[in-house]
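Throughout our pipeline, every protein is held as a single compact record rather than as scattered files. The remainder of this section carries one protein's record, kept here as part of the documentation.

===
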Amino acid sequence: MIDVVQGRPGTDADASLCELPPRQAATVRIAGSGQELPALMDRAFSVTSRAITAAGARFNGHPFARYTAFGEHIEAIVGFPFVGDLSGSEGVDITELPGGRAVMVRHVGPYEELGRAWERGTTYLAEHGLTATGPAWECYLTGPDDPGVPITEVFWPLD
């Protein structure tokens, strides 16, 4: 999925450049407070997962959340990359995770500490004179119910 990654799997990684393929994704838009976010994301992952499975499509990557608004009110596009056809999947949008160059930061630890990864990524962008070309997204390599600490990668798309 990622062509170039610095750092070892299972450890926090410094920000690095990577090359991503474009991927279509089954998504649901969510909006709410930070407290509501876990339940909203759980529902969105369930809806998009069921749509992919029901259509006979295949998952093509880890679940993600692409944030379009932060603050007291959070908005995100949430779902899974997939391969296949989802026509007729009511309530599920087909979007694209952009391909091309991106900045990536791996975070190993609780979701409550993900802000550290966001800080490392935005610092890298500033220090290298780079500008994201769209909203960043979090990719959840492990989930809250998996053994061990969560592993999340955050991506900022570039030109």
Summary: Confidence is low (pLDDT under 50) at residues 1-10. The beta strands are 16-20, 23-32, 58-59, 64-69, 74-83, 93-97, 100-108, 137-140, 151-157. The first helix runs from residue 37 to 55.
